[in-house]
Each structure stands twice: as C-alpha cells, then as structure tokens.
Amino acid sequence: MHRFYVPEVSGDTCKLSEEESKHCVRVLRLILNDSVEITDGKGNRFKAVIEDAHPKACVLRIIEHHQEASPAWELIIAVAPTKNIARMEWLVEKLTEIGFTKLIPIECHTSERTILKIERLKKIAIEAMKQSGRVHLPKIEELVSFAKLINNSNSFKGAKFVPHCNDSERKALSSAYKKGENALILIGPEGDFTKEEIQLAIENGFTPVTLNEHTLRTETAALAAAITLKTLNN
Fold it and tell me: Residue 213: is its pLDDT beyond 90?
C-alpha cells in the first residue's frame, strides 16, 4: 500500500501537501476510492481512501487509526557531516530505516563540511520513514559546534559515548552500554576528534568506546553504533 506523510491529522479527513498530492495523483496515478496509508510521524498510522484526487490538494478520508507507542529508549547521534554530502544523505536514510530519535550535526576542529542543508535531510528522513513503514519521524537539528553540543549534553539523561581512534583505553560499545538506557553517541569527522575534544567529552561524562577493530568512515561508524544498540535492545 502506498504511504504518505501528513504532519497534522485531525477529524475524519485530511489533505496531502501539494508535493504529496502530485506524487499521489500524477506519478502513482491513484484515483477516487483507492486505499492509502498515512502517518503523522508521531506514532500514528492511518488507513484512508482518496475522496478527491486533486493533483494539488488530494483529500483523504480516514477509515482506520492505529497508534504505536514511542520507543522505550532514545538514540541520539551527534555526527560531523561528511565532505561528500551524498554519504551524509545516505546515513540519514539508513538511520531512519533502522530507527533512531535525533540527529545532531556537529562542527569539529577537523570537520570537512561546515554548511548543511537541513531541509534536504529532513525530506530524506520523511521518505525513508514512509518507505520502511515506520511511524516515528526522527528529528534533524541544525549544525552546532562541538563545544556547544558538549555543553548542552549535560542535561541529557542517559549514557553518553565518544568513539575514537586514539590509542587510549576504551571499552567496546556493546559492553559499555546497558540495555534500555537512552544513548547519545558522538561520531567524529574523517580526521577523528582531536585529543582536546576527546578530553572535553570525557570530562563531561562521555565514556570513550570503540566500535570495531578497524578504522571506519564517519557514516559507517554512525550506522555501526546505531545497529549495535538497536540489536542489544531487541
């Protein structure tokens, strides 16, 4: 069944955005009384039928509603954007398919990208949510400095981890994490975090960990961390 995203659903009918309407009517060629599925990205799943197949304002009539509980734990990934933006977009897509709570792009000392089109990443997350059948849309925040992220993390209630490649003592993420805990994971740029950044993170409650015996690309490291914690919780 074709899926669509409607951020606010109330009452017995709702209207698709112009972009979603065009895709529904012009691209998919759906017509009056065809069944579709919609979600508001907040845990609600609706079955609906097309009441007015208008290519700019398609109207749907709700016939079923199911609500899925929010995940029992939060997974926040704070990552330095990759130089190749396609890799960052790929990461957002895959993290959304796997399931996570929030992405926070961070600017580090050795970052190779300091400008990011957040709206583009949000659209990718929406498409990945629809494609995968999920009903919780992750948040994509604006780019912040490493120092600001660390300062803001002091109010975070959960486990905090900083994977890095330095030859200092580190635990495996899989052994450092306790099932059911909220988790905030820092993922550095291709040049890794500086020693000063790592030390600042540790001083603010982050546990130094390792993800793999080999060096991973930024997007691979972020995905590996997410999969590790999702596997432990499932």
Answer: no
| pLDDT score for 166 | 79
8-state DSSP, 81: P
Q: In whole angstroms, what is the distance from residue 27 CA to residue 2 CA? A: 12
User: How confident is the model over 108-117, as a mean pLDDT?
Assistant: 91
Mean pLDDT in residue range 175-203: 95
Structural contact between residues 143 and 107, judged by C-beta atoms closer than 8 angstroms: yes
CA distance 150 to 156: 10
H helices of the chain, in order, are 18-22, 85-98, 118-132, 146-152, 173-176, 195-203, 218-233
What are the start-end ranges of the H helices in 56-194? 85-98, 118-132, 146-152, 173-176
Token duo for residue 19? 């972009």
Q: Are 93 and 120 in contact (CB under 8 A)?
A: no
Say how many Å lie between the first and final Cα of the chain, rounded: 27
d(CA 32, CA 26): 13
Name the H helices within 44-194: 85-98, 118-132, 146-152, 173-176
Q: Are 92 and 120 in contact (CB under 8 A)?
A: no
Q: 62-69: which pairs have CB atoms within 8 A and are 24 or more residues apart?
A: 62/9, 62/11, 62/12, 62/13, 62/14, 67/43, 68/43, 68/44, 68/135, 68/136, 69/43
pTM over 0.90: yes
| Phi-psi label, residue 203: left if phi above 0, alpha if psi -120 to 50, beta otherwise | alpha
